[in-house]
């Protein structure tokens, strides 16, 4: 059983490596900023891959523009969160529920919905900064009719903090951190996948 799980994690890590190689080329095209914006927007409402992947790829290629990319990523993510809210608020049965079912996270969604009765702002803020799947929180916020300004404020604080932290590392360390990532990318990819998986698991214990 353990060997199967390790094989699955390694396979996902290899997939991320291919994705990393693919995203690197966006830094050399005139469409890089739009690609980052669209990815950040979609990930906050329905897409599985976090925008950090492309943000890192672009920051590696052009460290001097790291903060610009962080702004684009933040704005896209916040607006995407509003779209996720809209899906949950107006079209949960037709769109929101199929998305939740597709990712097989119905139990997680129910747990998140319960958390909103305790402290919606904290729940959203924590999810926005951590590997916890953010789309679950944005759709649940709409389905639970949470004040949209609570979502926007919590998203603006947590998502911006997360993306600017990433951008700051590349802006300060530049080529040094690029060399480090390229040297240890396989290990970092496995850690990244584990964080993503743990994010889904962590939601179940937010009580």
TrEMBL record:
It comes from Candidatus Scalindua japonica. It comes from the Bacteria. The chain crosses the membrane at residues 69-92, 120-137, 149-172, 184-206. This is Membrane protein. PANTHER family: ALKALINE PHOSPHATASE LIKE PROTEIN, DEDA FAMILY PROTEIN. Residues 49-171 form the VTT domain. GO terms for cellular component: plasma membrane. The keyword Membrane applies. InterPro entries: DedA_domain (IPR051311), VTT_dom (IPR032816). The keyword Membrane applies. Keywords: Membrane, Transmembrane, Transmembrane helix.
